[in-house]
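Record pair follows.
FIRST:
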Amino acid sequence: MTTTTVPDLDTPHDLLRTILRVDGWSTGAFGAIMLAAAPSLREPLGLPTTWSIPFGVAMLGGAAALLLLAGYPQIPAPLAVTVVTVNALSAAGMVLLTFTDLMPLTGWGIVFLHIGAAFVAIFATLEYAGLRRADR
């Protein structure tokens, strides 16, 4: 018989910690996909390899930072605020990028960045809620 443990979200930092972990693992997985699929993304999305590789590397670094922060016994509020701010700015930046000519995005590339921005904004919102709960 296998038992599954569910995180105890009763302590103030547990909600924030859980959200940071999910954000960290999903960011890391997506960063690895961006790196592995960089050449394949150029045609359908219009995402140049010179952009997708640095994005993938940055995402792996961000994932490591998120997972490190989630492992702290007490999550420092200034670092959590930084995570919320970086995620919010990243979401806004992805949307703004679709309105520029910095890269030759296709229609699918624009949709791809908007979906990515929505996910990042959701994480920013959840982390903000977790931070507010931890501050109580």
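SECOND:
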Amino acid sequence: MSMSGQPVIILPEGTQRYVGKDAQRLNILAARIVAETIRTTLGPKGMDKMLVDSLGDIVITNDGA
């Protein structure tokens, strides 16, 4: 039995879903923001970054990982 057809996507209540050009534009914007954030970690004089997650845990990194 083949189960082909439309995929079921479950999103939290209040979430907006973008498609087409709007989704592409937002993905490009997100990539630019990430690139701008990690730009100073690159090169011989790269600086460290302090990352704080939603629980308040802190990680110091110089590679964005």
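COMMENT: The chain has a mean pLDDT of 86.
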